[in-house]
Amino acid sequence: MLTLQHRHELPVEMGKMSTMFDYTLAERMGIIQPSPFRLVQQAAKDVEESGREVLYLSIGEPDFDTPDNIKDAAIDAIRRGDTKYTASDGTPQIKNAIRRKFLRDNSLDYAAEDITVTMGGVQAIFNTLLATVGPGDEVILPAPFFSPYSSAIGLTGATPVFLKTKEEDGFVPQPRDIEALITERSRWLVLNSPSNPSGAIIDDETLRAIADVVRPHPRLLVFSDDMYETIRFGNKPFKNIINVAPDFRDRTVILNGVSKAYAMTGWRMAYLAGPRELIAAVIRVSNSSAFAPNSISQAAAAEALSGSQEQTRVRSDAYEKRRNILLALLGQIPNLSFTRPDGTFFMLVNCQHFFGKRSSDGRLIENDVDFVLHALESQAVAFMPGSAFGMPGYFRISFAASEATLRAAMGRLKSLCETLDRNGAKNAALPLDSKEFNRLSVLA
Fold this sequence. Notes:
2 domains, 13 strands, alpha/beta, four-stranded antiparallel sheet, Aspartate Aminotransferase, domain 2, Aspartate Aminotransferase, domain 1, 39% helix
C-alpha cells in the first residue's frame, strides 16, 4: 500500500552502492523527489491489473487530438527533408510565427533575438533558472505551483520561497503577501495565470498592484508563465503583467507554448520571450544541454501559431462546459469545498474534512495523499494529491476528460465521501496549520 512516506524516498540509496563499482551520486540528486504523477499512475496501474477500470482525472494534458493542419505541416517538413539540426534558439519560421502570435494576441512586439525555443516548458523553466540564479538567491513561488519549479530552483542552489495562496482568495497571489516575502536576495517572482493546478486567473487590478509591489526592487524579475493562455472561461481578454505595466517589459520573461492550446504535449515545444541579455544566457545553457530543438516539432508549432485559431476557441468552450458540469456535481457532495476555476482544465478541491476518518477497512485518512490513494483503491478514480503542487490538504481534478467520465467519477467520489462520513473518526484531524503546510510544501 502506497503512503505519503513513499513520495519522499529517493529512487536509489544515496552514497556508495553494494557493487564493485562506485556509483556515488551527486548530492544534488537528493533534491529530486520521485514524481507524484508517476506514483499515482503506478498505483492506478496496480488497480487496473486487478481487473478494474480506472477513471483518470489525474492526467494534465488535453484529451483532444492535435489538429490535422498541424500534423500535415509536420509531414510536409519530413517530406521536404527538414530533418537536420536547426539553430539552437529555433528556426526563422517558428520565430516569425511566435513574433506574429505576440503581436496578434498580446500586443507585444519582440524581435527574433528576444525569443528562444525550447523542448517543452520544463526545459524552459530549468534553463532560465540555471542561467540566472544560484546559492544565496531566492525565488518567490506562489503555491499551488507546477511542481518542476520547486526542483529546478533547488537544483540551481537557490532557495524557493513559498507563498501560500488562500482558497478564499481563489488561490490568487495577493500583493501584500508578495511584499512580505521580498528580500535583498529575491531574484524571481513566478506568476502562473491561468494556473496549473488551481485554474486561477490574476485579474488586471491585482496584476497592477503586484507590479507596484515589485517595482521598487530592481533586482527582482518576473517569470510570467502564460502556458494556459488560450484556455479561459468568459470573454475577458488575456493579460499578463507587461500588458498592465508596460515598464515591466525589461524585467519580465514570458513562457508559453503549444502543448495545451493545440493538444501537442508529446511534440515538446515551448518558447520564451524577454530581455535580450537574459534570452541570450538561456540560449547558452540550451547549447550545453539540448543543443537544438526538434526540427519537425518546430514546423508543426509554426503552423499551430500561424494557422487558424478556431480550434483553440472551440476546445476552450468544451472545457468550460465540462467545468460547469463538474461544479454542479461537486456541489452535491457534502464536506468538500472548492473554488470556481476561471481557466485551464484543472481545479483544486479541499478534502481536509476527511482527515482523521477511517475507511470501511479501517484505513486512516491522514492527508491528501491518503485520500487520493483511497479513492484509487476503493473507487478506481485517479486524482492528483495537492501536496504534489505545494498545496497539502487538497486534491487536483483534471477535467480534460469526457462528460461521461466526469459524471461517473463524481458519482464514485460522492460514494467515497459518504462512506467516510458514516464511519466517523477515532482521531479527528485538524486542518493543516502553517507549520505543517510549509513542511509538506517543501517536500513537494
